[in-house]
Specification:
heterodimer; A: 14 helices; B: 94 residues; mainly alpha; two-stranded antiparallel sheet; 4% strand
Chain lengths: 401, 94
């Protein structure tokens, strides 16, 4: 569920066409002090296919999360269209999904009412289930009728990357066979506001929304937020073989290491460390990496630090691109979203170039930037996702031959 | 917030306006088809509403009628007619 389409096929088709999902959000212009009025809403979807009994406790991010999970499980052959699970044992299955906060639209409504009335009267009983931090994970579990282990990580932009890495770790431990991993976030002006106050949201392209964000570009001026939900099913090799499933790719491994020197500033050294750890956990060498899906959101500082880290580690011969100028930054969803895009790139033998990268900034130079879609066979790719609070993550996937 | 639709009805009297307000709420907020909205409809068995819906129903009822719903006899609130009665007997907020 993304700003560029609500299936992997549709989304990848948009990337091939080099589309931008960035639009002007007129309502945000009315927010005093907010300097970024651009966002990328999810492509239209029909939440009515979810029964009211489940929808009543869902904010949009949970709706998108549930619809993405249905798609992923059905695609994997683990759930039928009628809702029955196939080859799922609850005691061997994880559902790991999170979001940046509880549903921000419902949170705003909840507190506006509370403050206005100075009373709890008028608060529906269903509100809390939209605003609690594990809202997405719980709502998806209820929508699925899932009685296995539910975990709800929350690390903003790194959320779904953490879901994936945690799922991989727990499957590796032998305790679980299947992990349903993902993240979801919905558009709300609070999200660009958080970046805007630290001068990290785009301000200068309101009349030409499709020209921003500009990852690694000289004229980049910040990120643009997006919304969506992305879900990836991880499954042990043993379980795949047992049920005769054909995997889409191998999740080789991943790592998360905290960069604790600063809450918001990126640090290239710690980025190198997390990529190094991801390689080590995947039993791979840096020379094995054939493509890097960069986090690069179009911020001045973050892009420069990531480019420096990639240059330090991989030099200038490994193709690098970022998809943030196509999708916008879908926050909790982006790690899994970019994994799906990377799997499609490997399948279709084409690497998607960084949109809006016209003139590489000096402090982002020295790596092999792809700014055009490029026909290329890729077997092993590394993906970075970094979040405020120093949550650095990196994981590696491999094409199934 | 007072609702003029309730003006003229005696305390406790289920007026057509009350029925109309409650039915509209049931249809719009709980997505129940209008033809199922008959007084004898059982909230749980026929209309498939549960305790969480019940809480929201009372909150909505208060906001739509401007009344305070108090002392509800939950075990004996079973049919749509019981909801009409609650709406009719609640006090107007002061």
């Amino acid at each position: 569920m993304s700003s560029l389409g609500n299936s992997a096929k549709e989304m990848f088709g948009s990337l091939i066409e080099n589309k931008s999902a960035i639009k002007k959000i007129d309502a945000w212009a009315a927010i005093d002090g907010l300097n970024c009025h651009l966002g990328a809403p999810c492509a239209a979807y029909d939440s009515q296919i979810l029964p009211r009994s489940v929808r009543r406790t869902m904010s949009p991010m949970s709706e998108m999360g549930a619809l993405a999970t249905f798609q992923a499980l059905e695609h994997a052959g683990l759930r039928s269209a009628d809702g029955t699970f196939n080859n799922i044992e609850f005691n061997k299955t994880l559902l790991i999904m999170g979001s940046t906060t509880g549903g921000p639209q419902a949170l705003e409504e909840y507190f506006r009412k509370l403050i206005k009335n100075n009373s709890l009267s008028g608060q529906p009983g269903t509100s809390f289930f939209k605003v609690m931090n594990h809202s997405v994970a719980s709502n998806v579990a209820v929508a699925l009728g899932f009685n296995g282990a539910v975990i709800s990580p929350s690390s903003a932009c790194a959320t779904s990357a953490q879901s994936l890495i945690l799922g991989w770790e727990l499957i590796q431990s032998g305790l679980y066979d299947v992990a349903i991993c993902g993240g979801a976030d919905e558009l709300h002006y609070l999200t660009p506001a958080v970046f805007d106050v630290v001068y990290a949201a785009s301000r200068g392209y309101h009349d030409t929304p499709d020209l921003t964000p500009r990852p690694f570009d000289k004229r980049r001026d910040g990120l643009v937020v997006s919304e969506g939900a992305s879900v990836v099913i991880l499954e042990s090799e043993r379980h795949c073989i047992k049920r005769g499933a054909k995997p889409l790719a191998e999740f080789c491994g991943g790592a998360y290491l905290c960069e604790s020197s600063h809450m918001s500033q990126s640090n290239d050294l710690q980025m190198v460390n997390v990529m190094t750890e991801a390689l080590s956990r995947s039993d791979l060498k840096k020379e094995d990496i054939e493509y890097i899906s960069a986090h690069a959101t179009g911020t001045l500082q973050g892009d420069a630090a990531e480019a420096t880290a990639i240059r330090t580690m991989f030099g200038g011969s490994t193709p690098v691109s970022s998809l943030k100028a196509h999708f916008g930054h879908s926050m909790a969803a982006c790690g899994a979203m970019e994994l799906i895009a990377t799997v499609k790139m490997m399948d279709e033998n084409i690497l998607i170039g960084t949109r809006n990268l016209e003139d590489v900034a000096k402090n982002c130079a020295g790596v092999m930037h792809l700014n055009k879609n490029t026909k290329q066979t890729t077997n092993i790719a590394l993906s970075n996702n970094f979040a405020f609070g120093g949550i650095n993550t990196s994981f590696i996937i491999k094409k199934i031959k | 917030m007072k609702n003029e639709m309730f003006a003229g009805g005696l305390m406790g009297e289920v007026t057509p306006q009350i029925i109309e307000t409650v039915n509209a709420m049931m249809h719009e907020n709980f997505e129940i088809p209008k033809k199922q909205l008959v007084p004898t409809a059982h909230l749980r068995n026929d209309l498939k509403l549960d305790s969480l819906d019940f809480v929201d129903m009372i909150v909505l009822l208060e906001s739509k009628t401007g009344k305070t719903v108090e002392n509800i006899d939950i075990p004996n609130t079973q049919t749509l007619a019981d909801i009409y009665k609650i709406a009719a007997t609640s006090k107007v907020k002061i």
